[in-house]
Amino acid sequence: MTDRRARFKRDGFLVIEDFNTYAECDSLMDRAEILVSNFHLEGEATIFQTSEQERTSDDYFLNSGGNISFFFEKDAFNGDGVLKRDPFHSLNKIGHAMHDLDPVYSAFSRSPQMKELAEDLGLTDHVLIQSMHIFKHAEIGGVVDVHQDSSFLFTEPLSCVGFWFALEDATRENGCLWAEPGGHKTTLRKRFKRTKSGGTEFEIFDETPYSTDEMIPLEVKKGTCIVLDGLLPHMSLPNRSAKSRQAFTLHSISSTAVYPSDNWLQRGDLRPI
After folding, report:
1. Which of 86, 120, 131, 212 has the greatest number of CB atoms lying within 10 Å of its CB?
2. CA-to-CA distance for 41 and 165, rounded, in angstroms?
């Protein structure tokens, strides 16, 4: 067993400094600005808010598994529904198929170091299923509630692994990740799925509340990769600082596991470019 794999199995997360170069991080941030500049809001904006995901799961959100879609912060609009800032500085994230539909994100997601990491962790049968560029803009970036990634990318058996890339320094002040070492040695609390009548709901497996008492801040420098077990409860606090905390995330699942048809994220007719 490799050292990386042993530490990952022990802690439920793995912090790898200098995984990406500053140039590689900058390439994603530059690309995000281009994507946003070409985005034109049509109709009502879709707001992403972790505490109200069932309520905010509209068709635009549910169709995003096979698209590049744009989601706004809940505090981005004034009482009249007008953006307080320019669109770029109003967004929560872009997702969820950037790794397949955009060449810049695809190259980042399938880098030589990513292939080496997958081998080190024994994830050679895994496939990439979701990607997100998360902005966490200064003074507006919202909280991400405690959650387990396997709740949103459920497989039988459980197989979800997340990769979180710091495109900028992540500190306590600007909303770094928090997690408990060994916290993945627990049960899956719930699953986020589609309902037969439309929309989404949580299927509850275990009503035991998450504990944050032993969570530690994962303050990391630009270029760091954090690997997250799908069962690991983790969170991030709001960014009330003057510095943004951009990050890119990938999620993978085993190609041999069952991916239910009522999972919220479905790929549709996606064809990689």
Report:
1. 131
2. 28
Here the tokens at position 153 are: 């990318």
- The C-alpha angle with vertex 92 and arms to 88 and 98, in degrees rounded to 5, equals 85
**Token pair for 57:** 């799961």
Domains by residue range for the chain, with CATH: 3-254 (2.60.120.620)
Q: Which residue has the tokens 């879709």?
A: 46
The encoded tokens of residue 218 equal 């994962």
Smallest Cα–Cα separation from 142: which of 54, 70, 245?
Answer: 245
pLDDT at 273: 41
Rounded distance between C-alpha atoms, residue 60 and residue 45, angstroms: 9
The confidence score (pLDDT) of residue 144 equals: 93
Phi, psi of 159 (to 5 degrees): -145, 0
Look up residue 206 and give its DSSP letter. -
DSSP 131: E
Low-confidence ranges of the chain (pLDDT < 50): 51, 54-56, 272-273
Confidence (pLDDT) at 44: 54
The number of residues making up the chain comes to 273
Distance between CA atoms of residues 156 and 261, nearest Å: 12
What's the pLDDT at 272? 45
- Say if residues 134 and 172 touch (Cβ distance below 8 Å): no
Instruction: For the chain, give percent helix, strand, coil, nearest 5.
Output: 20, 25, 50
The region, left, alpha or beta by phi > 0 then psi within -120 to 50, assigned to residue 226 is beta
Residue carrying structure tokens 């635009």: 60
pTM tops 0.85 = yes
